[in-house]
Amino acid sequence: MFIKCWGSRGSIPVSGEQYLKYGGDTTCIQVVAKSGETVIIDAGTGIRQLGLTLDAVDTCYLLLTHAHWDHVAGFNFFKPLFTPGKVVEIQNTTFSGQPVKEIFNTLMSPPLFPITQNDLKAKVRFRDDFTGSFSIGSLKIDTINMSHPNGAFGFRLTEGNKRFVFLTDNELGLEHPGSPGFDAYVSFAQDADLMFHDAEYTPEEYPLRKGWGHSTYTDALELAVKAGVKQFGLFHLNQDRTDKEMDRIQADCRSRIRSNNLKLDCFAVARNMEFTL
């Protein structure tokens, strides 16, 4: 499978010279199966630029971790929605009692937005069967509840013997309602070839933000180590975290890995990073 990050920032998009290396767009991940399907995880602001590259793709599939603003803010600007002949299939799960279809109807309605879903040119299908474990082309997809306010899902995408695990907006330091707990996340990510995990806070920042639904990078690193992950990406970068500050966090993780004689490739996930598993 081919994986590309179109946005790894958390909470709100940012711009400025201090954010050029890792990017300022919010969460959007593209996964292309060997069988040809394009799967998109989250519709943060990164999905706008992704949409401009999909002229040759007739059908794409959108999965959501949850419906907080930074994960849906780019949906209204996704070019395939306004292109005749395109098909967009969307996971119609429920967050805080609202199906995704209703959430997007709200986003595309006055006074929030001047264009409604009735104005879309693509064929949009909301899929109630994209839940639990399901398949899209050659990808087998499993979900797990995240530890996050209002609920969220993590995803494991398996193709052949390769695994990509995506666990953003997951607070390892506190079990929110529905969370299966730390050990369950270890099992879910076990032996993954690539894992992106929420790493928004430093240990020093976390006490004042406990309960907000995000992890320290040290807790995320511990999870990656215990799960035997091969490549570990620090994700959901704090909106105020500059490139230099993110470099220091990445360097600290790598130092901890070396001091414990571990074999783990650790990096901060930047916009436009690409991986082939």
Describe what this molecule looks like in 3D.
The chain has five helices and 16 strands. It has 277 residues and is of the alpha/beta class. It has one domain: Ribonuclease Z/Hydroxyacylglutathione hydrolase-like (Metallo-beta-lactamase, Chain A), CATH 3.60.15.10. The strands form three sheets. Strands 8-5-4-3-2-1-16 form a seven-stranded mixed sheet. Strands 9-10-11-12-13-14-15 form a seven-stranded mixed sheet, covered by helices on one side. The protein has a two-stranded antiparallel sheet with strand order 6-7. α3 (182-189) packs across α4 (217-227). The radius of gyration is 18 Å and the shape is globular. The termini are close together. The model has no long low-confidence stretch (mean pLDDT 97).
Question: Could you give a short account of the major beta sheet?
Answer: 7 strands, mixed
CATH superfamily: Ribonuclease Z/Hydroxyacylglutathione hydrolase-like
Q: Assign a percent range to the helix content.
A: 10-25%
- By CATH, the topology is Metallo-beta-lactamase, Chain A
Over the alpha carbons, how many angstroms does the gyration radius reach? 18 Å
